[in-house]
Amino acid sequence: MEVKDAIVKAKKNDQVAFNFLLDRFWNTVFGFQLKRTENENDAEDITIQTFSKAFDKIHTYNEDYEFKTWLVTISKNIHIDLVRKQKSTISSQSNTDKDNEYYCIIDKSPSPEDKLITEQNLAKLLRDIKKLKPHYQEVINLRYFQELSYKEISEQLDEPINNVKVKLLRAKKLLAAIIKKE
C-alpha cells in the first residue's frame, strides 16, 4: 500500500490503513520525540498522543505537504504543550522581608478532601473501565495500573507491539467516549 492510498482510505475510517500509517511512521515520530524528551516512556506517550490526534483529524490533512512532516509537527506541538503545562504547575513566589530573602513554596500535598475526591474519581473510573470489552480492560490495566512498558505488555499478551499500541489507543478513545457520555 502506498502512503497516499492509505491516507485516502484512512479518511474513510479504514482500520487497515490506520495500522499501515502507524507502522510506517511510528519510528519516525518516536525517534523525533526520543531526541527531544530523552525519555523512552515520555516519547512513547507523546507518540501515541500524536497518532491519536492525527487519526482524529486526518480529514484536515493537506496533501500538498508530506504526511511525515504533518505528524512531526503535531508531535512537536503536543510536546510544547506538555512542557508549558509542566512549567505552569511549578509555582513559587519570592518575598522580601527586610534584607532576608525567602520563598513561599505552595504545599501541593493533597488535603483529606482532595484524597476523598481522588478515591471517588478512581472508583468511577474503574466502573467506566469495566464497561469496556475485556481485552481493552486488560491492556489499560497492564499499562496504567501495573505500569508495564509496551514491550512487557506485548510479551505478556503474546502480541506484536504495534497491536498493543493500537489496542491501547482504541481503549483510551472508547473510555473517553464513555466518560464524556456520562
Automatic annotation (TrEMBL):
Residues 126-175 form the RNA polymerase sigma factor 70 region 4 type domain. It holds the Pfam family Sigma70_r4_2. Keywords: Sigma factor, Transcription, Transcription regulation. One of its GO terms (molecular function) is sigma factor activity. It comes from the Bacteria. Transmembrane segments: none annotated. Residues 27-88 form the RNA polymerase sigma-70 region domain. GO terms for biological process: DNA-templated transcription initiation. Belongs to the sigma-70 factor family. ECF subfamily. This is Sigma-70 family RNA polymerase sigma factor. It comes from Psychroserpens burtonensis. The lineage of its organism: Bacteria, Pseudomonadati, Bacteroidota, Flavobacteriia, Flavobacteriales.
